[in-house]
Amino acid sequence: MRPRPSLGLRARLLFAFALLCVVTAAAVAGGIYVQARNAILQRTQDAAVQAMTSRLQALYPLRSATPGPDELGEIAEAATDRNSFAVAVYRETHSPLPPSSPPLGHGGAGEGARTLDFGVASPELRQTVAGGRTAWQRVVRQGTPILVIGMPLLIIEQDRTTRASGIEVYTARSLLSEQRSIDELAAYAWLIGGAALAFAVALASLAARGVLGPVRELGRAARLLGEGEMRTRIAVRGSDELADVARTFNNTAAELERLVRQLREMEADARRFVADVSHELRTPLAALTAVADVLEEEAARLPAPADRAARLVGRETLNLTALVNDLIEISRFDSGVAALAPNEVDVAELVSATLRLRGWSERVHTEVPSGVTARLDPRRVDVVLANLVGNALRHGEPPVSVRLRDDPHRIVLEVRDHGAGLEEAVLPHVFDRFYKASAARARSEGSGLGLAIARENARLHRGDLTVANAPDGGAVFTLRLPRRAPDPDGGSE
Amino acid sequence: MKLGGVSRVLLIEDDPAVREGLELALTRHGHRVRAVESGEQGLERLRADLPDVVVLDLMLPGMDGFEVCRRIRAAGQTPIIMLTARGDDMDVVAGLEAGADDYVVKPVQPRVLEARIGAVLRRVGREQAEVERHGELTIDRAGIVVAKRGVPVDLAPTELRLLLELSGTPGRVHSRQQLLESVWEHGYFGDSRLVDACVQRLRAKIEDDSATPVYVQTVRGFGYRFGPV
Q1: ipTM at complex level
Q2: Where along chain B do its domains lie?
């Protein structure tokens, strides 16, 4: 369970790289842009102010303290060069505005006389200039950036103090070329930023591949290992942290493999031991079994207590034989030598034969439709059924029933009794070897391997055997078998 | 064959306790038992005693059970019941291929072994005057003689009974379980490999080509049938 949905590693890496790049590029380009722009503007401004100052100085001495429009025109003429336009103002009078001066030609004839609105020269600028100081400002007029410089003409008194003459000269100078330089700068910054971003994305992809490749490889290997493929290893490349992880993984896998092999060997040893013991027991048991009947038959003629002893030996020999046979049977499942001998079988016939041969036909209720056929090992299914029905008859309450259901893929046989059922705590262990549900019925009811063998038989068919308690009482054993059991050697005909 | 209910059993078993126990039990039920401990001795007694049936342990010192089985088969058609100590399927298959008629797994209860002995010794066939002809095969049920193109075919008892069972109802399909019950008299679900192995041996003797049988045909998924020729 993930705490929250998260982006993939690749997306996160790309995002981080891109963000880093954009921030860096923006900071660098932005900083340089602002700096360069200011420098350009400052230089232009300084040069313009200086040029204007030196031109205006050439006007001195002024011919009249109260100039008329003609004089103002001259002043304006003197203050301007080819790149700029100037206007000189004295109180309500000003030099003529050129007809085609979009930067300044705003004041209409009517209002121009009264307020002299240059449009570009803001009231603040005019106030500053009127105060006797040179000032400038940048404005944008109809999309064109303009530098407006206002300069008062000063009168120097005898005592070296200065006072405003009341004549103000304003020049407007287009900053179009500077603007173009700055725009170029900005475009250049954008271009470099974009290139850097593309580069960053490419780099991030590369890095992501470099990281994700090994990570994916690691994931695949871990999955394989989890699926039991103990020989899974990763190729270690380079000497970075990922290589360290790969190396650690390989070491862990090797250790796991060793442990698993050790465990398997131990388990195989244990099982082989059981198998060997069982086989060793068989020979003496074969001799005992051969004469057990003799003992039992002769017991009636023996004096007490030899008769009882003879019966005991005879009976227990058979029990021991059953136990050893079951042990051998289960060790054959363990060692994988148990093989299916599948045949096309009519299930109803099989069930009735199983019951009939053991004399259970009268005691077991069957709901087994005829005509259901399946390919299975009849001997093994008989063993399973006999075990289940035998248990139900011994431990459960009648009626004991066998029910057959089928679908196109499998057949399901249910064996149920109507007793108290099994305790919930017992249910998961019913198929364990030698598991005894209660100490009271520990003996004389088979080897304790019957259900384990039954389940192994079901699984050999690629089917299963399960147990549950019916809601209305009684234990239900359900044997599910595929319609076609796997064929061990391509099929008996 | 079985005379007056007494059959002569040759028991070849190396373990003295098992040998003694089985000898005891079989003798008690009226069989005349000759028990020997090796295959070599067994083959000797086979020639001298002419037993009705051989009970043969597969795991023998010296000459092993399979070899003994083959030699008994080569010498005649005495029925052979294998005693397999291991529940090893390969042993069973190899034994059946070597010509054994049936097998029991040790430890075996004497009554089971006796039932098997009884089954392989049971007289086969019905009284029937006419000799049946199936293609080139003639089956004389009264005299129990099977001949191919006039030449008698030497069949082991189980092979003969299987053939008589199948040819009794030509064209009818017999399942392996049915054959195990009728021919081998196996009460419980028997080992169907007994049938398959016996069919193979029978085909080798009566068919022109075992791979494309005419008389004993396989009905895939169900069993075997005789003919139609």
Answers
A1: 0.74
A2: 8-121, 132-226
